[in-house]
Amino acid sequence: MAPRRILVIKLGALGNVVQSFGPFASIRRHHAGAHITLLTTAPYADWLAVAPWFDAITIDQRPEWWDVSGWLALRHTLIAGRFDRIYDLQTSGRSCRYFHLMLPGRRPDWSGIALGCSLPDSDPNRDRLHDVDRQFGQLRAAGIDRREPPDLTWSRGDIARFALPQEIALLVPGSSAHRLAKRWPAEHYAALAAALSQHGLTPVVVGSTAEHRLAEQIRAASPAAIDLTGRTRLADLTDLANAARVAIGNDTGPMHLIAAACRSIVLFSHDSDPALCAPRGPSVAILRRHDLASLDVPAVLQLLPETATAPAA
Fold first, then answer.
1. Which domain holds residue 26?
2. CA triplet 10, 98, 32: central angle to 5 degrees?
3. Is the pLDDT of residue 246 over 60?
4. Residue 305 — pLDDT band, cuts 50, 70, 90?
5. Backbone phi, then psi, for 195, in 5-degree steps?
6. CB 149 within 8 A of CB 226
7. 211 in a structural domain
8. CATH code: domain of residue 63
9. How many CB atoms are closer than 10 A to CB 199?
């Protein structure tokens, strides 16, 4: 009997969530008549609630190891859902523990890497695959062969409130605060912003509130730049990407979402491997240096697509 109740586990971070859009779509198509629930974390729940792939969203509170009541509540959620199949697309140590959390008693078919699961991804090369390919390989092992493209048409924001000019270029100068080696120096972004302004593009800086100081540095060199740090929702990023001629940014979550809809140049250091985690989209160029401080602005400008500086049609 075909599974009627399905759970998909995807907790984060943003880049990993975006790289699951194709697998989400493949699961939905393969189980067209099933009731599909997504288990995710709070930052993505409202956004993904309007996506076409899920019938329900459940928030994982990610209990600490010592939080017995939190783990019991999570166990109740997993069991009370009466799921016929679970796709663990997180495949982390934490999500593997969820498989064992359901003991004793009946456990549903489980696609993932948890020891003892019924639909294991046993590819010995899985850790050397790009995140997207690894997930599709896992689904193939569970009987889902068709790869669906990531659909972003459902992710609609409200960027009219920003009153932006027509010709914009997105800059994403931040990254996780604990991985500063992933950042191209702010002074380089400032010089890039000035050059983009000379090309007739208004630089628009996006990121979290914590990255407002980076935007200030950029605006000091290019006063025409617009600072939207801390002001955008995830759906706004999709609309900004659709409106932009080009986006340039570090290997960070927002760039994965932006690159899925916009011509993008993504900058990598030694701290991450694009072969495993580069954003994917219609037109993504990768620039990598061991130390991003050694990457100069002309090298980035050289990769600008001609359409980025050509007059709009």
1. 5-141
2. 50
3. yes
4. confident
5. -65, -40
6. no
7. yes
8. 3.40.50.2000
9. 15
